[in-house]
Each structure stands twice: as structure tokens, then as C-alpha cells.
Amino acid sequence: MELTPVEGLPEIREGDDLAALVDERVDLRPGDVLCVASTVVSKAEGRTRDLSAFPAGDRARDIAARIEAITGDEKDPRFAQAVIEESEELLTEAPFLLAVCRFGHVTVNAGIDRSNVPGGDLLLLPEDPSASAARLHERLDVPVVVTDTSGRPFRHGQRGVAVGWAGMPASRDWRGEHDRDGRELGVTVQSVVDELAGAANLVAGEGDGGTPAVVVRGFAFGDHEGSDNLFRAEEDDIVREALRDWTFEG
Ligand code: GDP
Ligand code: MN
Ligand code: MN
């Protein structure tokens, strides 16, 4: 499998035709997968915002004050307001905002970015990243994965995850297949879009590289069942359940 960044993409602005910009620069072939950083999808979709668009309500002011008291870092209540407005639910409020985005992804600050954002204070995630991926897939005719850099529990550091995808299943199901001892696999469902996103994010980088789109060539989904269940439903998420009853007492 080979991953190649799409070179020479400009700074993306609202209304830009991202599919055309990519198509002009690479020769996509059947079997390729295109991974695109959510940052540029958001920019093209006009998801840049000024902090002033989020006048803070009582809850946001309370959250910002609590975070400040715990961490000692100044927190703009308008940022907390933006996270509240972009979320279906907050699983934690302090010392950080862990949000369930409306489209199902769970991430700190609802994935709102403040890096690589000229001309605005904030960049929101795409409203529906799988719908964004579907529009790109329609134009480019290869599977598309929209990625974001995201932290994870239990480990330091961030990595790329899929926030949206189209043209391929999210996961490949190994259940019913066999290991090398002939034992039947009972539980393994491999979230391939996350694994592709992780690899692509490694190539895209996090700084000023200017390479938000990465072509994956030579990935084979293989002869497996697939599914689109990536985000856990509320009722089968015990961690989410536990966090609802948790408050920081450090
Ligand atoms: P995120 O992981 O989706 O939050 O995106 P990042 O901010 O980490 O950026 C991923 C990659 O895209 C990096 O190589 C950035 O330099 C690049 N990038 C971000 N915005 C733009 C843009 O508007 N144009 C170009 N060409 N590259 C960008
Ligand atoms: Mn991001
Ligand atoms: Mn990133």
C-alpha cells in the first residue's frame, strides 16, 4: 500500500471546489482511496467562525470559570459556548470539554480547531462529514475518508481518525473467519476507515505542510463483510454512561 500527499493545494476558502482542486493535481485510479483532512473540508464549506459569533451564556461562563480554576489557563467563555452549540451532549465539562458531536463522533472541544485557520478565530468540523465525503466521492469516483486529528483516552498523543466516509464500509468484519490455528474469530471488527485515516494523517502532518489530501493506493478491503457502525449508539456505550455521572474533584 502506498500513500502519497496531493502537492500544491492552495489555502482553501469558502466556496472552493475541493473535488476539482484535487482532481487537477492527481490522477485517481480505481482502487484508490482519498483521505482529506476535515480542516479543508470545513474551510470549503464555510465553517470558519469568529468568537464573537458565540456570546457566552451562563453555562458557558460557568464551564470556563471551572476550567480556569482547575488548570490555571485562561479560557474564553465564548469558546465554551461554541463547543456547547456544536454538541449534542457534553460528557465532561471540566477540566476539558468532551463533546458528542451531532453526527456521532466523540471528541474534545467538539473538534473545533484554532490552528491552520486564517481569517477567523475558530474552525468548526463539517456539519455532516459523511455527507461531505459523499459529495467528494460522487465527483471523484473513489472512496473518500474525511479525517481529523483527535486525542484518545489512556494514551498520550493524538492520531488521525475518520469523522466521515463514503464509497466504502467503515469496518471490515472478521467474525466467522479463522486464525492460523483454525480458531474461529468471534469479535474482531476492524475499523478500516480509522486505520486509513491514521496512516493518511501521518503523511498529511499537523503543521504548515499544506498537504491535507492523501491518496492511498493498493489498499484492498478484501472479501469480507462490511458495516458502517463506527460511532457507538448511546445504549451500548458504557463509558459514555459512566462519564455522565462523573465530576472532576482533583
Ligand atoms: P485536521 O487534522 O483536519 O485538524 O487538520 P490540520 O490542521 O492538522 O492540517 C492537516 C494538514 O492540512 C497539514 O498538512 C496542514 O498544513 C494542511 N492544511 C490545513 N489547511 C490547509 C489549506 O487551507 N490548504 C492547504 N494546502 N493545506 C492545508
Ligand atoms: Mn482538527
Ligand atoms: Mn491534524
The H-level CATH homologous superfamily of the largest domain, spelled out, is: CofE-like
The CATH class of the largest domain? Alpha Beta
Per DSSP, the total helix count is 7
Low-confidence stretches: none
Largest sheet: 5 strands, mixed
Global mean pLDDT: 95
Strand content: 15-25%
Q: Tell me, briefly, the overall form.
A: globular
Ligand species: guanosine-5'-diphosphate, manganese (II) ion
Radius of gyration: 19 Å
Record the strand order, biggest sheet: 1-12-2-8-9
Second rung of CATH, namely the architecture of the largest domain: 2-Layer Sandwich
| Whole-number total of structural domains | 2
Distance between the termini: 46 Å
**Helices and strands: which structural class?**
alpha+beta
Helix content: 25-40%
Structural features:
single chain; 250 residues; alpha+beta; 60s Ribosomal Protein L30, Chain: A; CofE-like fold; three-stranded antiparallel β-sheet; 7 helices
Detailed description of the structure:
- The chain is 27% helix and 22% strand.
- With 250 residues, it is α+β, with helices and mostly antiparallel strands.
- The chain folds into 2 domains: 1-46 and 126-245, CofE-like (60s Ribosomal Protein L30, Chain: A), CATH 3.30.1330.100; 48-125, Alpha-Beta Complex (CofE-like fold).
- The chain is globular, with a radius of gyration of 19 Å.
- The mean pLDDT is 95.
- Bound molecules: guanosine-5'-diphosphate and manganese (II) ion (2 copies).
- Guanosine-5'-diphosphate (GDP) binds next to α2 and β8.
- The site of one manganese (II) ion has 2 residues, from loops.
